[in-house]
Amino acid sequence: MRQSHYYRQRFALGVCCCLSFYFGLCGQEPAIQHRNTITSVDYYKISSSKRQEVLFFYENNWKVYRDIALTNGYISSYKLLLSLVDSAGNQHLMLMTEYSDSTAFALREERFRDIIKQTSPQGLRLPLGLSYKELRSYLTPVSSENYHTIAADSKK
Fold first, then answer.
1. Do 91 and 21 sit in the same domain of this protein?
2. Do 149 and 35 contact (CB within 8 A), yes or no?
3. Quick one: 21 and 43 in the same domain?
4. pTM as predicted
5. Which residues 6+ apart lie within 8 Å of 29 measured at CB?
6. Where are the beta strands (DSSP E) in the chain?
7. Are 5 and 56 contained in the same domain?
8. How confident is the model over 55-104, as pLDDT tens digits?
9. Using CA atoms, how far apart are residues 122 and 111, in angstroms rounded to an integer?
10. Under DSSP, is residue 7 helix (H, G, I), strand (E, B) or coil?
11. Which residues of 67-84 are buried (b: 16+ CB within 10 A; e: fewer)?
């Protein structure tokens, strides 16, 4: 008699643990949430001799325009990434801009044109002694693609 009571207690305890585990999991937010965003990604190979000038240009133009677009709600996020130097001494620059939906993506050219016009009426900020054409010669486009977000972390 005493032994069956022991097993019933263990069984009840096991059921309670399983149920609390199950309901605990169901009540948590998932680690991955689906979003309907579009991310524009551009890759460039940087000439190692002009790395500082290229970074100056992107930090003082591209980044500034994204900060304004983010403040105005035109974009969801952006990233300016620089790769580690590979064994051949090359580096790549990756420019990522995330748009909240297809409407924001469709309006991107118009909105950035307005931001550039308002922010830089005298033109782009260039490193001393370089024209835009010269600066662009130190960048080799690798690819330019647009992606739909299927899943992302829930930190946003």
1. no
2. yes
3. no
4. 0.71
5. 154
6. 32-33, 38-46, 77-82, 91-99, 139-148, 152-153
7. no
8. 999 999 999 999 999 999 999 999 999 999 888 888 899 999 999 999 99
9. 18
10. helix
11. ebbeeeebbbebeeeeee
